[in-house]
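User: Here's a structure from my thesis project, written as structure tokens. My advisor, Dr. K., wants to see whether a designed sequence matches the one we expressed. Can you design one independently, without my sequence as a hint?
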């Protein structure tokens, strides 16, 4: 925060600022960190500067964030294959408004929708997310009076009043802006009961039974409760502990399983000292989140070591029975085939691949011949109904049954710098 503010002070004034955020940051003791951030930025840059905010659709849009942004948008795809296009659109729109002298769009319609669902139920790969998000582009490309339109699913694993879905449309034509926002919000509300998990789900035992029984391989299992890209610690050892206890994987000639991954900086040091082919022994994981299982003891052979990954820094594969366990110096999400092949692992030839992830990212999705999302414990537990929410707005779908249709009329957010 201070680095950003100091840098902004140093180089101002600015015609425009591009605010590139996810939107689901958590800071202990502070609600709505992104709203707080932009408010502090505004104190430095003032209100003449045009701010274009671009976000992940799993971020949250508080009134304060909406007010301090002049342009605002988010991804239209989950998985986020359009991440770079979204950022480009946000910057292009910003430059266009500056160059043409049009400045801040005159209207920003904001509609909070009392729906809170995980990304694993709202992927745009399947209905109803697919059709709902397909509505956005034609509206936003309606150049005559509308600048952009966006739907935020919001973030389900935090407990603040801002955690819910939002629709926003920005532009210069009041009627078009409000009507477009109200249509998107109503269409979202109307399909709320149709959202379901993007893949089959089950307990870890059921997931392993399906994987072992499958005729086709590799069979992918998402360790969903501890998905680091969703906000899980990434070091929950619960699933790995269960795998190590299973008789099927105790033998080296049994089914092969790749486990990605578990942070274990001390064990990585030992792996480097032992070298490839050497024996290592040490604990892994549960340094951050030990609520579900303690650090897990791994005793095995070092299969490979790789250096230089921007997230993991150092990675090693430790073979324990039939398990190829990736241990990392720092937490790393495994999204791409090369994340495995650079460690000399062959995920396409493995029987089972377990990844700390929710829905599979495109390259993993392309590799699987079978896939199940294991409903495992962790910071991003998919069983939202079991979570002890205290501070989200109520009523909220799907937690409160028989909700009345909420007020989905557009609220016009004051322009930045104008009082409410
Ligand atoms: Zn996201």
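Assistant: Designed independently from the structure alone:
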């Amino acid at each position: 925060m201070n680095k950003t503010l100091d840098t902004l002070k140093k180089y101002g004034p600015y015609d425009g600022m591009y605010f590139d955020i996810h939107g689901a940051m958590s800071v202990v003791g502070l609600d709505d960190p992104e709203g707080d951030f932009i408010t502090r930025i505004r104190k430095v840059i003032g209100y003449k500067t045009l701010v274009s905010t671009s976000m992940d659709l799993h971020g949250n849009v508080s009134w304060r964030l909406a007010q301090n942004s002049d342009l605002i948008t988010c991804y239209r795809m989950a998985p986020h294959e359009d991440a770079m296009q979204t950022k480009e659109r946000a910057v292009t729109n910003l430059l266009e408004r500056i160059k043409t002298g049009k400045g801040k769009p005159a209207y920003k319609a904001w509609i909070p929708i009392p729906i809170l669902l995980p990304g694993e139920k709202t992927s745009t790969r399947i209905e109803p997310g697919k059709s709902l998000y397909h509505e956005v582009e034609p509206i936003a490309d309606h150049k005559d009076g509308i600048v952009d339109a966006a739907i935020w699913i919001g973030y389900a694993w935090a407990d603040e009043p801002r955690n819910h879905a939002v629709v926003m449309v920005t532009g210069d034509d009041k009627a078009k802006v409000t009507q477009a926002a109200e249509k998107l919000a109503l269409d979202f509300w109307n399909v709320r009961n149709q959202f379901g998990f993007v893949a089959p789900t089950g307990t870890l035992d059921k997931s392993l039974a399906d994987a072992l029984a499958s005729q086709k391989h590799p069979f992918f299992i998402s360790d969903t409760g501890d998905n680091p890209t969703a906000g899980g610690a990434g070091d929950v050892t619960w699933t790995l502990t269960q795998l190590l206890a299973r008789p099927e994987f105790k033998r080296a000639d049994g089914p092969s399983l790749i486990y990605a991954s578990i942070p274990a900086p001390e064990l990585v040091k030992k792996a480097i000292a032992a070298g490839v082919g050497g024996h290592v022994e040490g604990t892994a994981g549960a340094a951050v989140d030990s609520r579900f299982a303690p650090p897990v003891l791994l005793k095995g052979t070092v299969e490979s070591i790789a250096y230089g990954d921007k997230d993991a820094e150092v990675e090693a594969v430790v073979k324990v029975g039939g398990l190829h366990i990736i241990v990392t110096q720092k937490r790393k999400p495994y999204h791409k085939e090369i994340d495995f092949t650079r460690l000399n692992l062959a995920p396409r030839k493995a029987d089972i691949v377990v990844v700390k992830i929710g829905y599979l990212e495109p390259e993993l999705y392309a590799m699987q011949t079978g896939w199940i999302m294991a409903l495992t414990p962790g910071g991003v537990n998919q069983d939202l109904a079991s979570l002890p929410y205290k501070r989200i707005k109520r009523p909220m779908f799907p937690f409160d049954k028989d909700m009345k249709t909420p007020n989905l009329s557009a609220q016009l957010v004051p322009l930045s710098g104008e009082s409410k």
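When you compare it with your expressed construct, this may help: The chain has a mean pLDDT of 97.
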